[in-house]
Each structure stands twice: as C-alpha cells, then as structure tokens.
Amino acid sequence: MSYEIIPxxxxxxxxxxxxxxxxxxxxxxxxxxxxVVCVAxxxxxxxxxxxxxxxxxxxxxxxxxxxxxFPAKGSISxxxxxxxxxxxxxxxxxxxxxxxxxxxxxxxxxxxxxxxAGYQARLIDDVTGTMPPFxxxxxPGPEDPVGVSERIKAAxxxxxxxxxxxxxxxxxxxxxxxxxxxxxxxxQILIDNPFGNDSQKTPxxxxxxxxxx
Amino acid sequence: xxxxxxxxxxxxKLDVASHxxxxxxxxxxxxxxxxxxxxxxxxxxxxxxxxLTILDAWARVYLPDEQYAELTISHHLQDxxxxxxxxxxxxxxxxxxxxxxxxxxxxxxxxxxTGAEDELAKAIAACPEFDVAVYAECxxxxxxxxxxxxxxxxxx
Lengths: 213, 156
Known about the structure:
The structure holds two protein chains of two kinds.
Chain A: E1 5-8, H1 19-27, E2 36-40, H2 41-47, E3 52-53, H3 61-67, H4 79-89, H5 91-106, H6 112-116, E4 137-138, H7 145-156, E5 160-166, E6 172-177, H8 183-189, E7 204-207
Parallel strand pairs in A: 2-5
Antiparallel strand pairs in A: 1-7, 2-7, 3-4, 5-6
Helix pairs in contact in A: 1-7, 3-4, 4-5
Chain B: H1 2-7, E1 12-14, E2 23-25, E3 35-46, E4 52-62, E5 71-79, E6 92-94, E7 99-110, H2 119-126, E8 130-139, E9 145-153
Antiparallel strand pairs in B: 1-3, 2-3, 3-7, 4-6, 4-8, 5-7, 8-9
C-alpha cells in the first residue's frame, strides 16, 4: 500500500520553540483527521532544550577513558558525548554496557553495548551532526517521545503522531507513537527519509490518509 | 591525560608565517571609492594522530584608532571548503594528516571619506602594518582547546 507523504518546511526551530505549537503553526492546515504527523527526533530534542555545547559538559575520567574505546567516527567517541550518555544512563550502566558489549563481540554478537547502555546510546548526535546553528552542539534523543506524540495528536486533531529517527542510509526507527499508530508500519513508510538530507529544514512530515476513509 | 600518550590526539597547525599577503578582490563597484575588499589565505593541517573537529574559528584585527584612525576594517573568517555569505563558521571535521585553508575576508572602509577618488588609496597606502590573530576552537579525542596564531599584515 502506498501513502502520500507531505514534508512541511519550517523556520529553524530552537529551544525557544515548542514543537507542538510549531507543528500547528506550519502544518496545521495540511493535517486531517486520518493523517499521522511525524516529527524528526533531533528537532524534538532541540526544542526540549537538551542539546548542549561541549563547554556546557564536564567530562569525567571515565568519559575520557571509555570514549577512547569507540571508533572516531562514532557519536560517542568524544569524552563530551560520552559524558552526556553517562549523565542520562549512569556511569555504571555505560561501563556495564562496555563490558557486556566487549564479551558479546568476542563471540560474534554485535550491538550489545547499544542495547545495554540505555535509550540515549544510539541516539546521541555528536557535533557536526546537525545543521547550523546546532552544528556545535551534542544533540541527545528526545525525552518522552510518546508523550510528545500524544500532545501533537491532541493539538492537531490528527489520527496520530510519532517521533522518528530516519536517515538517508535507509535507517528508520520510531521512538514513540500516540495510541493507535503502528510504529513498524510508519518506520517502513518513512524508509526513504521524506525529511530530506537535513531534517531541520523539513522536520515535520504528514502521512496522508494513514487510516483510509 | 595519560590516554593521549597511548592513542595520541588531534592537533591543529595554522600556517600563518608565509601566507600573510592580502589579495585585493573586487567588491561592489558603487562603493569602490571608499571600500576595498581583501582576502588572506591561511593554510592549516591536522598534524595529530586523531580526527580533528574545528568547532569555531574567528579572527581579531589589531588596528586600534590609537594607531590609525583613517580606516575601519571589518572581517570574517571562513573555511574555503564551506563558503558562506554570513559571518558563521560551520563546525567541520578534518582527518588526521589532512588540511585545508581558512580565508580571512577583510573589508576596508575609508572612515573619513569626503568624495575624492583617491582618498581610499591614500588611506591604505598610509596604513601601517598591523597584527591579526586567528583563533580556532578545536576538539580531538580529549578536551576542547583553542589554537591561536598571530601574523602581521600590510595592506599596501
């Protein structure tokens, strides 16, 4: 089944904006009662004010030490992003993730660290991962994506809403949905990344007639 | 930190010494009698062993009124691979052993312009040498650091 997807262009949203108000302002007229409103996870986090510059983070000894265990290209390979992860998940949990991840890799199982070290482990975007003016920020995943989705649904009158983590590498993951929305189906619908190369330019997408009339 | 001893870190080297010649570039012809634009190219290289992130870069022109009050010099610094119309420096990655070029764009304005055609040229000719500092806020695998270098510029 194919779905019409409408990307909604907005101004750059910052911590001064409320994501629900922004969706109503920029996409309100395009949203119908059978639609699902999708919003990019990094923009939700930015509007929640959780994106931080390096100078706002004080990495500790373990952040310096453990970040070195990750390849330089990874988002938690810097002590600053690693400290952010430790602030969210706890240092002990991250260290446990490293131990378990290392043991699992020894027997050929990948990805255990990211499943063990907490929700933010695979969501944190390091500097340069987001468009200006947030290119100098470390952006975590959004807090309470289910609650955000429910607020969007209530404010727009849409069938539902979701917070999505989608990129151009055919990686599509739904972090939270409002009641009645099938996250796996929405992830498949968004697989071609309708948010575009830089999700801050069109951080909102509307899946038209998600439920058929 | 001791970890750096084992793994190394990124290190930025700004090469200002041999590249401080300003090149005049054409500007808006309507303002040519009192505005002159220059560009100074500053090569840099990540001479460390880890990937470098240049978070921000900026310059400071040391030409106070006490030294010379005939010109106002405004400026902005950008990377040649990321030209921009604004004064924003976009954070960028630089692999170990690789380099690039910063471009310092200077706009020189004759402050006491009265309408004479050669006024700007005379003011530039009389302008003394002055220092310019270039700063780059960087991050490798350790703490963020600021690299600074100073060079002397002569417009004429």
